Amino acid sequence: MHPAIRNLLIVALAAFVVACNPMEQLGDADAAVAKFHEQMDKGQFDAIWEGAHEDFRKASPKAPATKFLADVHTRMGKMKSTEREGFNLNTNNGVTTVKVTHKTEFENGPATETFDYIRKDDRLELWNYNINWGLAGPPEPGAGE
Questions:
Q1: Which of 105, 109, 112, 127 lies in the 20 to 30 Å Cα band around 138?
Q2: Which residues neighbour 141 within 8 Å (Cβ) at sequence distance 6 or greater?
Q3: Residue 34 has pLDDT above 50, yes or no
Q4: Predicted local confidence at residue 2, as pLDDT
Q5: Reduced to 3 states, what is the DSSP secondary structure of residue 96?
Q6: How far from 43 is each of 13, 65, 71, 102, 110, CA to CA, in Å?
Q7: pLDDT at position 142, please?
Q8: What distances in angstroms separate CA 11 from CA 14, 24, 84, 110, 135, one per listed residue?
Q9: Long-range contacts of 123-126 (CB under 8 A, 24+ apart)
Q10: What residue ranges do the domains of the chain occupy?
Q11: What integer pLDDT is reported at residue 32 of this predicted model?
């Protein structure tokens, strides 16, 4: 085998191994979720939308997306604690996706949050966010007044 081709294969294999390192991806996902919660608690909904993956921004224009995030924060209150329940890593055609599920306790009750991220360069970008507070869930803000 030609040395240049061998070296190229070694570099490509090393890049693949780094991209698929589940412990690194898990650490990055935990940091991304912590940043999301910090931004939510500070009311930085615009920053969440602006830092999200382009697919997220295309799927939901800024105004409705930030209103949704603000409504979630109003209804659930600040995050009190969160614990990772599940983690899934997938690399397909050079695109790495990370899905992480958290059980989160908010001021107004518990919820299950699912975060989908896409790796872009050296960071994870939010691709999708889902929150499920169960059938009853906390009351709507202002309900019963």
A1: 127
A2: 74, 75
A3: yes
A4: 57
A5: strand
A6: 42, 13, 11, 20, 19
A7: 60
A8: 5, 19, 33, 46, 51
A9: 123/28, 123/32, 124/25, 124/28, 124/29, 124/32, 124/98, 125/51, 125/52, 125/53, 125/56, 126/32, 126/36, 126/48, 126/51, 126/52, 126/53, 126/56
A10: 21-132
A11: 96
* DSSP state, residue 141: T
- The whole-chain average pLDDT of the chain stands at 85
pTM equals 0.79
d(CA 145, CA 143): 6
The Cα–Cα gap between 53 and 65 comes to 13
In the prediction, which pLDDT does 55 show? 95
pLDDT at residue number 27: 84
With 90 as the cut, is the pLDDT of residue 61 above it? Answer: yes
Tokens of 24: 């690194």
Estimate the share of the chain in helix, then strand, then coil, as percent rounded to the nearest 5.
45, 35, 20
Residue 113 phi, psi dihedral angles, 5° rounding = -115, 140
Tokens for 64?
């409705």
Please, which residues bridge with residue 98 across strands? 89, 117
Fold of 21-132: Nuclear Transport Factor 2; Chain: A, (3.10.450)
